[in-house]
Amino acid sequence: MANPFTIGLVQMRSTTDPAENLARAIGKVAEAADRGAQIICLPELFLSEYFCRTEDDKLFDLAQPVPGPLTAAFEKVAREKKVALIVSLFERRAPGVYHNTCAVLDADGSFLGKYRKMHIPDDPLYYEKFYFTPGDLGFPNFDTKHARVGVQICWDQWYPEGSRITALGGAQVIFYPTSIGWHPGEKAEFGAAQLDAWRTIHRGHAIANGVYAAAVNRVGFEGGPQKGDTGLEFWGNSFVADPFGRVVAEASNDKEEILVVECNPALSEDTRRNWPFLRDRRIDAYPPILNRWLDEKK
User: Is the separation of the CB atoms in 75 and 81 below 8 Å?
Assistant: First the structure.
């Protein structure tokens, strides 16, 4: 049986200053490590404000190669603190080809690989299709020193297929780095339901797959209403659900926080023995899921 391991989630604010965000993120990673975290995940695109609120070709200048300067900065802290890291960033792959990517670093600072966001939204204030090419690396797992992990990024979290495939690859925990929040004009009417849906989908992934699900969000308001940018209020609430779907730790909706949670693979084993969803899957009956829609026969 695999040994227990401890994860850390860094819920943080981001500003328009990448250097400031980087320094603060490194400091928070070090703090999480000092509190016992062995695998630490940062929020989606933490190096800047969430820039996809607008379509502006100058913002492509925020992108960088992977591996590159950002991964090099975190390789150092990973090596010093002996922690594995999930680092979200805007990847420049080639001129005109960019991705929303997570780099995974091991506890010795080595680069294990990357996951590229597969599902790309295009909603008001979430104009990601303008910036990101859909991922083409599938749903890989990464063997860190402490555990086998998988990654899904923000909009990916709403698709059960990605989490299922990641779990089938052997992930003991799936990290969901996220930038999700309320449109100010919608919060009063829909805010509570949106947050509940977000928590519910992650708990569902944990239950359906018998894994730990770790959602890490940014927090704070970003925008400039005085300039016509209504902005987004990122709702925080980073949390960890165990394989039974129980929320074992949760952050606030308005403060920077670090969650440190022990994960025990034995609980996944026990849960899957008693809820053998993977055993009972009718894989012979699922080919229709490969269709966009099941049209009626004419």
Answer: no
Convert the pLDDT of each residue in 201-229 to its tens digit: 999 999 999 999 999 999 999 997 776 67
Per residue, what are the HEC states of the chain? CCCCEEEEEEECCCCCCHHHHHHHHHHHHHHHHHCCCCEEECCCCCCCCCHHHCCCHHHHHHCECCCCHHHHHHHHHHHHHCCEEEEEEEEEEECCEEEEEEEEECCCCCEEEEEECCCCCCECCECHHHCCCCCCCCCCEEECCCCEEEECCHHHHHCHHHHHHHHHCCCCEEEEEECCEECCCCHHHHHHHHHHHHHHHHHHHHHHHCCEEEEEECEEEEEEHHHCEEEEEEECCCEEECCCCCEEEECCCCCCEEEEEEECHHHHHHHHHHCCCCCCCCHHHCHHHHCCCCCCCC
Q: 42: closest CA among 67, 68, 77, 2?
A: 77
Sheet strands side by side (includes 181-182): 181-182, 229-235, 219-224
Could you give the residue numbers annotated as active site?
A: 44, 117, 154
Of 190, 183, 196, the residue nearest 225 (C-alpha)? 183
**226-241 confidence digits (pLDDT tens):** 766 789 999 999 999 9
> How many C-alpha atoms does 41 have within 13 Å on its Cβ side?
31
pTM above 0.85, yes or no: yes
Q: Taking the CB of residue 197, how many other CB atoms lie within 10 A of it?
A: 12
Domains identified in the chain and CATH numbers: 5-290 (3.60.110.10)
Residue 132 contacts residue 117 (beta carbons within 8 Å): yes
